[in-house]
Amino acid sequence: MHNIVQRAVVVEGKVEVRPIMYLALSYDHRIIDGKDAVSFLVRVKEYLEDPRRLFLNL
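RESULT FIELD:
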């Protein structure tokens, strides 16, 4: 995980400054399909954005 920095983002048509963190994943393409890796990373992102999902299994 990278550090959290303030960046300009568009939210509902307006530019706002929000804390943003980049997230990367390394994996062996010979073993893991890219689609599965992306699905995993999207799920991690969703859990980081709303940790309650971990416990509610939404």
